[in-house]
Amino acid sequence: MAKKIGVTMEVGNDGVAVITISNPPVNSLASPIISGLKEKFRDANQRIDVKAIVLIGNNGRFSGGFDINVFQQVHKTGDLSLMPEVSVELVCNLMEDSRKPLVAAVEGLALGGGLELAMACHARVAAPKAQLGLPELTLGVIPGFGGTQRLPRLVGLAKATDMILLSKSISSEEGQKLGLIDALVPPGDVLSTSRKWALDIAEGRKPFLRSLHRTDKIGSLSEARAILKTSRQLAKKIAPNMPQHHACIEVIEEGIIHGGYSGVLKEAEVFKQLVLSDTAKGLVHVFFAQRATSKVPNVTDVGLKPRPIKKVAVIGGGLMGSGIATALLLSNIRVVLKEINSEYLMKGIKSVEANMKGLVSRGKLTQDKAGKALSLFKGVLDYTEFKDVDMVIEAVIENIQLKQNIFKEIEKVCSPHCILASNTSTIDLDVIGEKTNSKDRIVGAHFFSPAHLMPLLEIVRSKNTSAQVILDLMAVGKAIKKVPVVVGNCIGFAVNRTFFPYSQAAHMLANLGVDLFRIDSVITSFGLPLGPFQLGDLAGHGIGLAVGPIYAKVYGDRMFRSPMTELLLKSGRNGKINGKGYYIYEKGSKPKPDPSVLSVVEESRKLTNIMPGGKPISVSDKEIVEMILFPVVNEACRVLDEGVVIRASDLDIASVLGMSFPSYRGGIVFWADTVGPKYIYERLKRLSETYGSFFKPSRYLEERAMNGMLLSESKSSRSRL
Ligand SMILES: CCCCCCCCCCC[C@H](O)CC(=O)SCCNC(=O)CCNC(=O)[C@H](O)C(C)(C)COP(=O)(O)OP(=O)(O)OC[C@H]1O[C@@H](n2cnc3c(N)ncnc32)[C@H](O)[C@@H]1OP(=O)(O)O
């Protein structure tokens, strides 16, 4: 059925015109909506039978903001004229400066442009639990319908800058306390109360307030300057490589110094510049890429319904198992945690409790909710409880035989509908399920550490995994607030496979004589939160050593073998786990580079002996980025070529959420396309001539470079999905 898009107006006997926005599912402000709003506001202002106006969104949602598809069209075409020149005409002239009072009837959500329209009304009546916010900065732009000026005038400068810079939304309950919402009423009363409120303003019983003209919440100029100084420090900390945060503060400041109208004009100007920035392009891409992951051909489009998953068994209470159990419990799913002896079980239970405690102490969870979650948790030493679980997630060490035995056992004790999932990060699923007759219900549920915090869930399907099982796991993933990305089966799957050259390239550079702390610092300046050496410290170096041979077996032709990890472990450094790796870890302080590790590096350099003429190479920061990330792009090309992901943008999301690749660069493939496949190909070719096959460009990259194609352009692939 075609969705009904448009703006309607109905004038009641009370003289109130109700203007309704309809654009399912979130009433986004697409071009026909904007022109419809202009037309209806003009009409309502002219009609003599209209005394007052109420603005509402259809189907219980006020509006999710400006239509983000328009940004994408502007990015594809470079054509700014696709953006409406409406900020002042619609929001100031037709709405806020209207002679007839206007009330926003807010239900469900008012985000971005949606909240900005509501703030241009003369009062706001809301239903409980409506979501209110200005998340534009997450898209690389700033609010463009006057939000930078009206929000500070309604809630105060400190709260407004906090909400805008951190893209934090608030509930209508909090909105009422702050003065953003004038009345909070039961959902069924929102429209009737709004009508009455609008008439009360029209007839002088309530004040006719124009947000842009208000000054009561702004404070003195010196107070405002102090708040903006703190905001600038915050922006520097949270978004060092992004332009929109600082630009937004400048725009807010303009309004404080020269008045709200001047601020609105500057806002439109800055918006225009930002919408075409690389940051906006990357972030808008990520917005749509994330939503695309929930569309899996032959799984989500064949009429299947997810089955309820109420009880899950987790096998293994180590770091991963306890994190997974925590994530499930937090979403009210009953969990049984199985271990092989009481000592390990107690450790697992304590880890889950510690995870909850950590969330409570950071204010992310109430004590009450933590208690409720833990009441759904049980530790066990045998399989008795497994008979009625809906899913098992195995999270033991990466040992093929152990996993095969576990799957053989659980096949016997669980019901035939039970999903059998493995949290392996590396091992082929077909191998894990080899000894069972249940291959259709075996699936990979690859969480990222710490599993209760990291947002990605890589769902690995083998050729035999049924569509129903994939759909069920996707639903569980969403229920526990993860972003599930469905990928094909291969060693390392999509994320770890794409990123295995990351640390190897770093090791090669260090062995070529580049300072390892400089490498980490260059990579963090590029935007990854941790450089490769600090990341290794965090994961623990034992893991790298354990999975290395598994990778070597299949990808050995393009691996750099560095003795550094082994030497590091021999010198008693296992990273953060034991307080000492490349860095020193002391409780309560930031990791410090450990100069004494340089003797380990020297030993490694002697063994590899790859420095040309025995002398350290000289490289620029740009070259360091290229030598570390172009091999990652090269492996991403192989992942695309083999059809391990459904679409290139899935790999972008997986890299952003699984590896913390900077979202403002759009993900690994998007970034590579921005740099240019031809440039990357030529650089890798040169590097491979100097340093060997580790850098050899893949066939896919070469083809794309030669044919002037983007890496993300789809092709008929040899899909594994
Ligand atoms: C010449 C230049 C002059 C300059 C003048 C300035 C003019 C321009 C002014 C712009 C003004 C404005 O300040 C800018 C904005 O408003 S930007 C948008 C701000 N809003 C957001 O960022 C909200 C984004 N959306 C969400 O956070 C969530 O989608 C949600 C609204 C909370 C709903 O979440 P949920 O229920 O989980 O559903 P989904 O996320 O899956 O979304 C469902 C589908 O809806 C699509 N969607 C959502 N929001 C938008 C949107 N704003 N625009 C377009 N589409 C949207 C989403 O993609 C899903 O679609 P599919 O089902 O197809 O995947």
Automatic annotation (TrEMBL):
Coiled coil: none annotated. It is found in: Peroxisome. Residues 492-585 form the 3-hydroxyacyl-CoA dehydrogenase C-terminal domain. The keyword Isomerase applies. It holds the Pfam family ECH_1. InterPro entries: 3-OHacyl-CoA_DH_CS, 3-OHacyl-CoA_DH_NAD-bd, 3HC_DH_C, Enoyl-CoA_hyd/isom_CS, Enoyl-CoA_hydra/iso. It comes from the Eukaryota. Belongs to the enoyl-CoA hydratase/isomerase family. In the central section; belongs to the 3-hydroxyacyl-CoA dehydrogenase family. This is NAD(P)-binding domain superfamily. It comes from Arabidopsis thaliana x Arabidopsis arenosa. The lineage of its organism: Eukaryota, Viridiplantae, Streptophyta, Embryophyta, Tracheophyta.
